[in-house]
């Protein structure tokens, strides 16, 4: 019995070492250029998925893309949590017709991605009619539980919305 | 076979225990990082107030990007140049309602900024909201992104 226990102990130690080594290797390889471009592609896909979700007003998709700790700072200085944003989208008081990004730069730091760019948006508000405006944004994505999640969004420098009905 | 099953079960149990332990053990590290970030963030505000450009530049990562409330974008070199060439003086440059979220090697800081002062041409006083992103690079926290928004007057 003692011998068997010793075998088990040895086996367990070896397994633990192997598991730790493979985890360490997996973490290291994330920082390699080949993996970095893969990560950049994943972030680009996450950005596209968010854009699609906004255009389709897909609150379930937005829910998946935003981390629970998500926080947005908008152009008038108002701060929105994940629950605030999803509730607003559910209300359906705003319909986004187009959301086009330009001058997009993705910076990767391991499991973090900082995306900066300019967005040109056309939308319609129930009370204000159709608008056409641009702004600068910073998006912070973190890979949590194996998928990229948006933890922060900040916008500023919004051009004065032009009503296309005027 | 018994031995293999026993080893597998033991490994799974130990991994699960280690994982939950790791999650619990994260908390003190996160708290420590949060305190470091809060301190660094205060020092950054103070450096802005004192026009200590060397201290500001030390905090900024090489690929730092700053987006102003007006929508202009500056990289690290342009930020340094912009600060040095200007004559802005602030008697107050203070963050309030500071919230720090730490995710491993990254910290996201959101806060309200109270600023009083300006330059020869105009008054730059006001209340702002900002997002600053810090990343731990080779053991030191560096700011990689900073975006500001002016709070609209009610």
DSSP strand (E) fraction of chain B? 35-45%
**Count of DSSP helices of chain B?**
3
| Helix-strand sequence of chain B | HHEEHEEEE
Mean pLDDT of chain A: 84
Helix content of chain B: 40-55%
What's the story with the biggest beta sheet of chain B?
A: 6 strands, mixed
Please state the overall shape of chain A, judged from the principal axes of the Cα atoms.
elongated
Question: What class, by secondary structure content of chain B?
Answer: alpha+beta
Number of helices of chain A: 4
Helix content of chain A: 40-55%
Low-confidence stretches of chain A: 22-34
- Which radius of gyration of chain A do the C-alpha atoms yield? 22 Å
Radius of gyration of chain B: 21 Å
Runs of chain B with pLDDT <50, length 5+? none
Q: What is the mean pLDDT of chain B? A: 90
End-to-end span of chain B in angstroms? 73 Å
Distance between the termini of chain A: 88 Å
Q: Biggest β-sheet of chain A: count, sense, barrel?
A: 7 strands, mixed
N-to-C SSE series of chain A?
HHHEEHEEEEE
